[in-house]
Amino acid sequence: MAFGADRPLAMDAGVLLAPWQIAYQTYGTLNAARSNAILVCHALTGDQHVANIHPVTGKRGWWETLVGPGRPVDTDRFFVICANVVGGCLGTTGPASLNPATGEPYGLDFPVVTVRDMVRAQALLLDRLGIDNLFCVVGGSMGGMQVLQWAASFPERVFAAIPIATACIHSAQNIAFHEVGRQAVMADPDWRGGRYFVDGAKPSKGLAVARMGAHITYLSEATLHRKFGRRLQDRAAPTFSFDADFQVESYLRYQGEAFVERFDANSYLYLTRAMDYFDLAADYGGVLANAFTGSRTRFCVVSFTSDWLFPTAGSRAIVHALNAVAASVSFVEIETDKGHDAFLLDEPELFATTGGFLAAAARARGL
Amino acid sequence: MAFGADRPLAMDAGVLLAPWQIAYQTYGTLNAARSNAILVCHALTGDQHVANIHPVTGKRGWWETLVGPGRPVDTDRFFVICANVVGGCLGTTGPASLNPATGEPYGLDFPVVTVRDMVRAQALLLDRLGIDNLFCVVGGSMGGMQVLQWAASFPERVFAAIPIATACIHSAQNIAFHEVGRQAVMADPDWRGGRYFVDGAKPSKGLAVARMGAHITYLSEATLHRKFGRRLQDRAAPTFSFDADFQVESYLRYQGEAFVERFDANSYLYLTRAMDYFDLAADYGGVLANAFTGSRTRFCVVSFTSDWLFPTAGSRAIVHALNAVAASVSFVEIETDKGHDAFLLDEPELFATTGGFLAAAARARGL
């Protein structure tokens, strides 16, 4: 969906972005009352391809466990929309897009993006699609931040909200991990100050290192132990070298290499920065509850016991704030050893929780 | 201390290293019975400068909290020795040393080092110093691995042992973090396959990224929150840029920059690898207790509640193994929010525990 100079995106950086476009996918059918729309918000390295074959990787949609026919977010029943976030690299305007002022990609001239900017862009898309009200907004991690921002910025447009494995604020430790990833990208001489597009170079090594480090934070120690332990890669004894002796090393290297094939390094900088900047309470006088005052949205907050990137404490803070303004909120902490990535995996309790919540909300909504 | 071809270091990689040398510091006075020696084993990026001004950084010794006159490891009473590990870069032979076969630095031709190699080298040093028996071996993290290896390899030479914030085995998660660090170094084009010495280049950017990532694992989330939180660096509002907006970013960048001034990138590869390879039970039929069968060494095992790099579970495994062979062991888990680095910091309970243990052991030893 393209927006011209008449519909600029007003960004927190103080820039009116125009022209700009937003790439999205839909699944299912919008009902006549236009009341069955569910917006799915993707995480840091996700995209709009929730439940279809990915055009770049050829892999299945990233949330087919949760979204699809007969799944908790049932595409036979709901009209599901997912848009690539602003600053991303799968079709929505971002640092790899052409800057009309120069005729070359923006690079670091692209304005720094915030979670609020992502939500503003999605709201403009929904306006254009003629969807005034969302039945539900759902997302995990950075997607969960967008869910919370939606509920705060546009409470009247959100009937139900499911923030999963997320927080209202990015912690110092999480900022620290992101900064290491950014420095890994920027340390790659092929990054060229963000202007790698000029001669076709790509900071693939730096971006791969960033992804490897981040990937560890998406898993739990228990998962790494269970999946890999100290097992060696295709051999009986260590090689006494710096080859990938251990399976976990080989796995991480593969994660890094696969990632750079599908993701833009500058987008990685921008989207990690957006998460770092996220501090919902700061916009409401430092009191998180104020973000939800008077909200009639129904919330279902989900966390996972072994998620050390977005620990349950962050979800509890959301629940406390919602309780403080007498909002409707249910909260489930799911027992799992799969870490932060649990929200993307086969977690029956997640499906039962979200499916049950959506069924009840649909009844309340008269769907 | 230099060793010639007559005293090669027999390394686990199958190499007889010669000539080689080991750099060390001593503090205090060896008594007439030669029975009051304490060996301090340093951690990954430590060195022999335990309790004196560091010759490169000009900073105070890295363990002056624990070691010195009147401290728990009392240099008025004990003869304290600390040697740079083999593979290190502060005087002991390592990858930056000249390879006599080529006349240039070893680089990656240096044999991969193990914790057992480090201990063998220390044992040869003690032989040369005429110290048959150690009153105590003490160390944290990789230093603690050496303590355990000492107790297993040379039980008759170790009267008391204090492994702190360590484990008998390096976990999959820890291998994963190390591998990211190594890949960060190797991704730096100035690393040049380990031959950066040829033209005076240094993979400083890659090594700095490695250090930044590792540094996060040495702290706890609570420490990062307490020390930095989301406070901004010398400004009132975020810059909407990729500058070090947050204090935690600035702090990490500084940690990376300071580290590359004092540490050799190849040594970093070798020493992380040594930790990855550490699996004490594997040398004893897979049963950790067998490593300590018949041991008369007195152990004091210490862990810290907020240490997620070497969690208390790893210390408990050591204690269980020692109990299984009826060894003398005391175990203290110290409540602190300072994370893995707690062993280097002002932790009164650590001083009380180690000081009390050493005082009792000294009485038992007749010191």
Structure description:
Chains A, B: Its EC number is 2.3.1.31. 2 copies of one chain form a homodimer. The first copy, chain A, has a 7-stranded mixed beta sheet with strand order 5-9-6-12-13-14-15, sandwiched between helices. A two-stranded antiparallel sheet of chain A has the order 1-4. In chain A, strands 2-3 form a two-stranded antiparallel ribbon. The first copy, chain A, is globular and about 65 Å long. In chain A, a hairpin with a 4-residue loop joins β10 (98-99) and β11. Chain A has helices at 115-129, 142-153, 172-187, 204-218, 221-227, 247-262, 265-277, 312-324, 348-365, and strands spanning 2-3, 9-10, 16-17, 20-21, 24-27, 37-41, 67-68, 73-74, 79-83, 98-99, 104-105, 134-140, 158-164, 298-304, 328-334. Chain A has 367 residues and is α/β, with parallel strands linked by helices. Chain A folds into 2 domains: 24-83 and 133-169 and 280-365, Rossmann fold; 174-273, Rna Polymerase Sigma Factor, Chain: A (Orthogonal Bundle), CATH 1.10.1740. Chains A and B meet through α3, α4, α5, α6 and α7 of A and α3, α4, α5, α6 and α7 of B.
